[in-house]
């Protein structure tokens, strides 16, 4: 199977703003930044979507979600909530066919409605320096992931 965009990021062949990595997962900023700090948690194993997970992969990936969520919240005192979403299958809006979990920080004044909106693209508002500063702030708040 040909590498998808997330395989290339995992291999380091395409750069990313990394916030966490271990043997099983990579977490990095979503380029679109629906809100500042929008992070993707991606299994390194190539699983297309939730329907592909076995118990071992599910445990390795899903147990990281609360710890990553806490690090994101701790990275910015204005973050008051977080949406966690995974789109599975093109009919559900999945555009990259390599399973991933969106962690989208929410702010009291973010002017988004309460439904999840990972299709919003704010990348034009983000310089490399701003992405890097956000990724670093999350990474330094990760504890025992
Ligand atoms: P999906 O629509 O499959 O749920 O989400 C795919 C996500 O991947 C989108 O939010 C999109 O912004 C993000 N994305 C696509 N290509 C890249 C990339 O090259 N780098 C990063 N960091 N994110 C990407």
UniProtKB/TrEMBL annotation:
A motif (Histidine triad motif) lies at residues 98-102. SUPFAM superfamilies: HIT-like. Gene3D superfamilies: HIT-like (3.30.428.10). Pfam families: HIT. It comes from the Bacteria. Residues 5-113 form the HIT domain. This is Protein hit. It comes from Convivina praedatoris. The lineage of its organism: Bacteria, Bacillati, Bacillota, Bacilli, Lactobacillales. The gene is hit.
